[in-house]
Amino acid sequence: MKTTFFLIIIILIPAVNMHVFAQVSCEQKKYKSELIAERNSKNQEFKSEADSPLDSTAKVHFKSLKYYKPSCNWVINARLERFNGTDTIKMKTTTERLPLYIVFGKVIFEIRGITHELTLFQNVGLMNKPGFENYLFLPFTDETNGRETYGGGRYVDVYITDNEYVTIDFNKCYNPYCVYSKKYSCPVPPSGNYLPLKVKAGEKSFVKH
Fold this sequence. Notes:
Structural class: alpha+beta
Order of helices and strands: HHEEEEEEEE
């Protein structure tokens, strides 16, 4: 009887694992499909919208932004630590402009078993606008900058939740608008927001045609 019981357990364990793997694969497929749709929509906006960061000449030759392939491995669940008080800084930009940002807190997360920390900021000019109440700004640099991605670093949007965790989706990290035109003034990622690894996710360097 005991032998039969253990045989049933051995048979059931692989079956359960296969079910979980299938479920993850299905979610990943849906995620990739939605992300690609978002990227296609952004391409269309860049090419045709009046508020596109591209000038009229660049729009004519524009085909698509360049991206890394979507991967759920770069969707990170990070613990949020809010800072006490509301320290406000004048953030350095690519011009003389110094926009005000609240140093909101830091996110702590693991990538390949190594713990990393990045500082989150809240734009003072946006925080009271409808739709931006929970919006946080995460500028960062990594080992792909100047090679595969923009040398000045990239941005990713993060949103406050009802608990102590937030999602950092590096697949959605994007270039500053000053990459596309010198008429823009863009925040420069603070030196402390450096990741000592290659974030092979999100938007790559912009190539003018």
